[in-house]
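Exercise 7.
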Amino acid sequence: MRVIFRFQDCLDVVQGGVLPLNETPIEAEKAEFREATKRDSKATFLIHQCVDMANFDKISAASNAKEAWEILDKCYSGSTKVRKMRLQFLRRQYELV
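Solution. The predicted structure, written as tokens, is:
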């Protein structure tokens, strides 16, 4: 996915999100915000296209690409405690075989 985001020029939006506008933005800031919003929409579309229905249900309520990416990252990587438990379980299965 990161390669696709990099190719589509969306990786910075997925990792950092879209910065909100100031109270009195100038035209350059408005144009930059519009461009960042377009790239965020493109990244959200790419994420939606690359996941199955079970994962789509998890991320369908996400309002932007960063939020959807964080949900997927949390589901698949988990916390360090969960990863340690998985490794212990796999090691135990391997030793029993």
